[in-house]
Backbone:
């Protein structure tokens, strides 16, 4: 019983360590760092708005990119910036009613496709990304006049109106990545400052990449290399080497 108890305690400690390690390496959870302010949900078209009090737009964008490098990011701007993480578009914008605060609007690609003004996004996102968002396979055109949460009363979204989040909304509100698994990015792995964008990360040329190679049989060098075979003759119990006979035979 004592052995089983000690084994259970060890397993719990190991699992706790692994959880803390993964949580430290993973993407930051926005909903645990900033309060959820507004929600709009219509099927796969979703928009969640968080408030970062007393922080500027570049500061918030820097916090996000330092933990996880985005797939794409707009140039530094004090009024608004866009970051792309998988299927989520992060619209980081200054609150005009409270200029000392920054709003983090996390929109699904479907929400952007149905509501945003594509010409408005041209100044922030790449042409390839905008084309993928607004040009469907059947040739129909999407989009609206929406330009972000801060201008929702002037450029209204097509899919509905924002509302205060409910308890269920807070449970399903997205963290930094939509699939809720997070991206794992080693800090310091990329360089910052290329292409005129202080947040743009490109792989460093002198950075080394680890590889796993299957070693050839009988040769060293690969971590999966086959062990050398032993060709030593077996010894009999009487010492020395000799014949090994099957039991019951003389």
Residues:
């Amino acid at each position: 019983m004592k052995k089983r108890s000690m084994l259970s305690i060890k397993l719990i400690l190991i699992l706790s360590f692994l959880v803390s390690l993964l949580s430290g390496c993973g993407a930051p959870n926005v909903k645990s760092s900033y309060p959820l302010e507004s929600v709009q949900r219509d099927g796969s078209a979703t928009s969640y708005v968080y408030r970062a009090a007393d922080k500027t737009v570049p500061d918030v964008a820097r916090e996000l990119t330092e933990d996880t490098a985005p797939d794409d990011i707009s140039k530094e701007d004090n009024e608004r910036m866009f970051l792309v993480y998988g299927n989520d578009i992060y619209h980081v914008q200054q609150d005009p009613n409270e200029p000392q605060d920054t709003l983090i609007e996390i929109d699904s690609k479907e929400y952007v496709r149905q509501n945003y003004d594509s010409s408005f996004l041209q100044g922030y996102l790449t042409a390839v990304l905008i084309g993928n968002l607004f040009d469907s396979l059947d040739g129909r055109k999407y989009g609206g006049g929406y330009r972000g949460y801060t201008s929702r009363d002037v450029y209204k979204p097509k899919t509905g109106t924002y509302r205060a989040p409910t308890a269920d909304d807070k449970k399903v509100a997205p963290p930094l990545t939509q699939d809720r698994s997070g991206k794992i990015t080693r800090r310091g792995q990329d360089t910052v400052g290329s292409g005129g964008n202080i947040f743009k990360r490109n792989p460093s040329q002198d950075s080394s990449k680890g590889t796993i190679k299957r070693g050839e049989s009988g040769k060293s060098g690969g971590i999966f290399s086959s062990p050398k075979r032993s060709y030593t003759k077996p010894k009999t119990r009487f010492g020395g080497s000799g014949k090994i006979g099957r039991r019951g035979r003389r």
About this structure: DSSP finds seven helices and eight strands in the chain. The radius of gyration is 28 Å. Confidence is low (pLDDT under 50) at residues 16-28, 176-196, 200-231.
